[in-house]
Write a structure and sequence with these properties.
Layout: E1 15-16, E2 23-24, E3 27-30, H1 44-56, E4 61-63, H2 72-81, E5 89-94, H3 101-114, E6 120-125, H4 139-151, E7 155-161, H5 165-172, E8 179-181, H6 190-193, H7 196-201, E9 205-208, H8 241-261, H9 265-274, E10 279-284, H10 288-296, H11 304-318
Parallel strand pairs: 3-4, 3-10, 4-5, 5-6, 6-7, 7-8, 8-9, 9-10
Antiparallel strand pairs: 1-2
């Protein structure tokens, strides 16, 4: 049951989204899990409560996508937040199979209806065209449609997700891009060598997804953990072989730092990430307790010395990875 309170219990220091007028929270509530596919044991009621708890703890920016459960995630976001729509920022995404001009327009209309709103704050291209065997569409065509939606007031800002530096550069030739959403965490850092320097040059906000490395950085998975069939993490490269063991050793080295600040391992990893230039952390939750704990990471101020040590510990994992930015062996 959604409460009708309209007052926020906590407020976070807001950050500008790119060069837009939109103000976002340094922690963004992620809702991939709300679509159910690739996740096991996720309950609707608990998720709606989690989204609401995130909002009440000060996380007023919510990230979703049309492809998460064929729009199911967007519907749950609306169920949780429609009564406070004017106090939240909605970010959603158009999938790689909808990047022709008329498809972008139709996809946006679908998202507007499911989110029960007449505008989307940040509308993002989820994957570059051609991904997942989708048709290759010139970025000029896709951006033309996005610019049209922006001119009509249906979207307020344009972002891209899973774009390389060269793809981002090409998109920038056709309009303003205010955010890049890459996989980025202490244990997954390919973006630092690729698109992130361009983001700094162009004042593009980095919305880091899988910011806890799909839960690995929370330390809750032991050395011999096995994921059930249907859980997307079974295909995550970080959970396999020597890389997984290196991650366990890195977590052991991070624990004393977390203890010093009296915070969880997960919040230590989030605090490190939010301390990186122009970077906000997208983090999901499947219940209100997780959402409230995630929100607490925004209050953590790490010393320069600890940031440097955490950085170095993270490299003991990332230095053994190849340059492929995709985190899963989808096969």
């Amino acid at each position: 049951m959604v409460r009708t309170t309209h007052s926020l219990s906590t407020s976070m220091n807001l950050r500008s989204l790119g060069t837009s007028e939109i103000q976002i929270t340094p922690i963004v509530m992620g809702t991939w899990q709300a679509g159910k596919r690739g996740w096991v044991g996720v309950e609707d009621a608990s998720l709606v409560q989690a989204i609401r708890a995130a909002y009440e703890a000060g996380i007023t920016t919510i990230d979703t996508a049309e492809v998460y459960g064929d729009g199911y995630s967007e519907k749950l976001v609306a169920a949780a937040l429609s009564d406070v729509r004017d106090q939240v920022v909605y970010a959603t995404k158009v999938f790689a199979n909808h990047l022709k001009a008329d498809q972008v327009i139709a996809a946006c209309e679908g998202s507007l209806q499911r989110l029960k709103t007449d505008y989307i704050d940040l509308y993002q291209i989820h994957w570059p065209s051609g991904a997942f065997n989708s048709d290759v569409v010139p970025i000029a065509e896709t951006m033309g449609a996005l610019n049209q939606l922006k001119a009509q007031g249906k979207i307020r800002a344009i972002g891209v997700s899973n774009f390389s530096r060269s793809q981002l550069q090409e998109a920038l030739q056709h309009g303003r891009i205010d955010s890049l959403q890459p996989p980025y965490s202490l244990f997954w850092r390919q973006a630092e060598q690729d698109a992130l320097p361009l983001c700094r040059e162009q004042a593009i906000t980095v919305l880091a997804y899988s910011s806890l490395a799909q839960g690995l950085l929370t330390g809750k998975f032991g050395p011999d953990h096995q994921f059930p069939e249907g859980d997307v993490r079974a295909q995550n490269k970080l959970f396999q072989g020597d890389t997984y063991q290196a991650a366990q050793q890195a977590l052991d080295r991070l624990r004393p730092i977390a203890d010093k600040y009296q915070i969880s391992l997960g919040n230590l990893a989030l605090a490190w990430l939010m301390a990186q230039p122009q970077t906000c952390a997208i983090v999901g939750a499947r219940n209100p307790e997780q959402a409230r704990e995630n929100a607490q990471a925004a209050e953590v101020q790490l010393s320069d010395a600890d940031l440097a040590e955490i950085d170095q510990i993270g490299r003991s994992v990332t230095d053994r990875l190849d340059e492929n930015p995709v985190m899963w062996n989808f096969g």
